[in-house]
Amino acid sequence: MKIVVLAGGLSSERHVSLVSGTSICRALRSRGHQAILVDMFLGLEHYTGDLENIFDAPDGLLGDAAIETAAPDLDSVRASRADQGPSLFGKDVLAVCAMADMVFLGLHGACGEDGRVQAAFDLLGIPYTGAGYLGSGMAMDKAVTKYTMERAGIPTAPWRDIPSYTAEDIPRLVEELEVPCAVKIINGGSSLGVALPDTKEELRAALEEMLHYGSHILVEKKIQGRDVTVGVLGDRYLPAVEIVPLSGAYFDYVSKYQAGGSEEICPAPITDEQWREMGEYALRLHTALGLSVYSRTDFLLDEAGRPWCLEINTLPGMTPASLLPKEAAAAGLPYEDLCEEILRLSRAAREAGR
Fold first, then answer.
1. Which residues lie across from 295 on neighbouring strands?
2. This model's pTM is above 0.85
3. Where do the domains of the chain lie, and which CATH numbers do they carry?
4. What is the pLDDT of residues 95-107, one digit of tens each?
5. How far, in Å, CA of 14 to CA of 209, rounded?
């Protein structure tokens, strides 16, 4: 198959996406596919060959990709693009995607997981991997996901949706909100745009910090517990992973992506009953949001052994060391086979109009 692995983009998870995309592309090429890696935002401005021959590129357009200790400087990324145009699709991206048998979405964050790319591809008749536009958009919105959890009977921490606030509102919110709590921007990922204040002073600082990301936030009761995640592939849930941060008390951006930042135990050291309970919740949320192909749902397991659902990821990390591939491997599905299975399930989903 001719496959464009679309990665990069323009979100705070750009670096993570490029590493996922590079890993996916290498895996697909090892299986004989004509796969190429394309940066969604920067496009093909450095490609000098004929576009019709691009799938024959001997290196798959692969470069070096690494996850830095800090989120990318998106202003610098914007400034580096030659055409300085307003589109999130760089030079020739849509043209080459239209030439592919499938676009494998290696995107993460607001630029790729919020449904806009999927909607554009649906309008253009371009097949892609993962969930459709509507479910992606709903899952990316933490408030919509919380409402869906409540309607589906999935336990989640008490929360409050704050759709808009300004610096002038912060003193009032500090008085109204209880601590300790978790403060999250509505569409963040990779633990960016999240704060866990324990005091009113920390809450004030958190609210000020979140305004750098946006004015729509969600505030929920802080629950102490173990970080556990469960993936869904097709119509089944996978073995759970427990994440134990080593660099601090919280599974933040550094803990997630830097060597030695965390220990990830798969299968998680939990009871079969706990795994099945979280697995059923993950599958229920996946279905309630109208998702397809694959997803990964994050939980906290409290001291009493009760699971509390945090959020769902429709395009989870896809490096061989990422959580979902680890779960698949524990279920007997090596990384290359996982990529093939995502392709197969995605073709079926697109043909079914999902």
1. 232
2. yes
3. 2-128 (3.40.50.20), 139-154+224-351 (3.30.470.20), 159-221 (3.30.1490.20)
4. 999 999 999 999 9
5. 21
